[in-house]
Amino acid sequence: MISNMKQTINLSIIFSVMIALIFTACNPFAKANSAAFNPNFTYGTLTDQDGNTYRTIKIGTQTWMAE
User: Fold this and answer.
1) Cα 30–Cα 37–Cα 46 angle in degrees, nearest 5
2) Residue pLDDT, tens place only, 21-58
């Protein structure tokens, strides 16, 4: 009886910790674009057919997406 009670308490603690981790990791109020960009670089932009704009960076002769 006591071992069942300990097991139930342990499972409750594990479940509570898992729920807390999920809620702290999935912050719905975080900014969608929270990437850090180097202010010393000059970035270009690229807009896709849906109207989303992305930053680009030129490395040598090639242009790459920066995000």
Assistant:
1) 90
2) 666 666 555 555 556 788 888 899 999 999 999 999 99
